[in-house]
Amino acid sequence: QEDVFAAIEPVMHGVFEEFADGKPVTPYPFPRIPYREAMQKYGSDKPDLRNPLVMQDVSEPFRGGGFGVFARMLESPKAAIWAIPAPGGGSRAFCDRMNSWAQSEGQPGLGYIFWREGEEGGAGPIAKNLGPERTEAIREQLGLKVGDAAFFVGGDPKVFTKFAGLARTRVGTELGLVDENRFEFVWIVDFPMFELNEETGLVDFSHNPFSMPQGELEALNTRDPLDILAYQYDIVCNGYELCSGAIRNHRADVMLRAFEIVGMGAEDVESAFGGMLNAFRYGAPPHGGLAPGIDRIVMLLAGQTAIREVIAFPMNQQGQDLLMSAPSAVEDKQLKELHIRTALPIKA
User: Fold this and answer.
1) Which terminal CB of the chain, N or C, has fewer other CB atoms within 10 Å?
2) For residue 29, which phi and psi values (nearest 5 degrees)?
3) How far apart are CA 144 and CA 268, in angstroms?
4) Tens digit of each residue's pLDDT (9 = 90 or more) over 55-111
5) Beta bridge pairs of residue 211
6) Is the per-residue pLDDT at 119 higher than 80?
């Protein structure tokens, strides 16, 4: 993994430094954030680090407290309360505006506390129910002061994380905290190898089943699958994933065991991926890499937010390439050559 990072960082930095029109570019080595930390702090595995806001878990001040909605939520062991700090957002008008935005996103609302001069313990419905001591503990934990605010999301983090990330982005943008004139790079690393399928309750692959688990065979044999990390990584810039890659699994025994954990027997793996397994057995070397998204790189350098603006021949909303008049009708002769038969709907 270190070899891949050392090879790609000078390339990515050099491209942006040359074409960024003087905007600052993160020097390499780029910072690294583990996947789970990125989700907890930023609500996204593609965090925009130009936004300085970092979310925190503030469950303890709410546990058993006077704000009943959150106190009841926290009776579930899966539940947590996260806070989004909002320096400079300490007005009822701004808090109400954020609450209305949350409702437009399909949420019941967005809880808040704001601190203003001469009002002990903060303002807003949550502060009044929670009490000054607990409210002050939240303010101190978040490092906020008079004139600031904090917004709260609660429940199962698996459910609310995406919305929390959107709220963080909205708060930072509305308060003018995002520096639009720089390119901020970060590696997201240590993606989980496995996850729990919510529908079946069974262990499944999280991202890339062919990547190397950290700890290799020993980890697969001795650790809880949900605690095993993989050598998977992304380069993120200004909230966009520019490169995604992994160190590939090159050992047949590790691959067979990884698939066994998700319920796929050796015979099934041999049938589906026999060519790859045979290559491993003949002695595939350790290998890895990543794939830069050229269109996304050009989009950022061109100051665009829609990739369609930098694609030479983008498709329309019907999936048609108007330049090439594609897709076009297929002749029966072509279908016959490929042994394809169409089943058109029966007209009434």
Assistant:
1) C
2) -70, 140
3) 56
4) 999 999 999 888 888 999 999 999 999 999 999 999 999 999 999 999 999 998 899
5) 248
6) no
CB atoms within 10 A of CB 264: 16
Work out the mean pLDDT of the chain and round it to a whole number. 93
β-bridge partners, 246: 232, 289
| Coil vs helix vs strand at 186 | strand
Q: What is the largest CA-CA distance in the chain?
A: 83
Q: Where are the beta strands (DSSP E) in the chain?
A: 32-34, 56-57, 80-86, 111-114, 149-155, 185-189, 194-196, 203-205, 232-237, 240-248, 287-292
What CA–CA distance (Å, rounded) separates 164 from 151? 9
Tens-place pLDDT, residues 305-344: 888 899 888 888 888 888 888 898 889 899 999 999 888 8
Spatial separation of the C-alpha atoms in residues 211 and 4, rounded to whole Å: 14
Q: Which residues of 149-158 are buried (b: 16+ CB within 10 A; e: fewer)?
A: bbbbbbbebe
Residue 325, Cβ neighbours under 10 Å: how many?
8
Q: For residue 299, give both structure tokens.
A: 């989009």
The answer to whether the peptide bond before residue 345 is cis (omega within 30 degrees of 0) is no
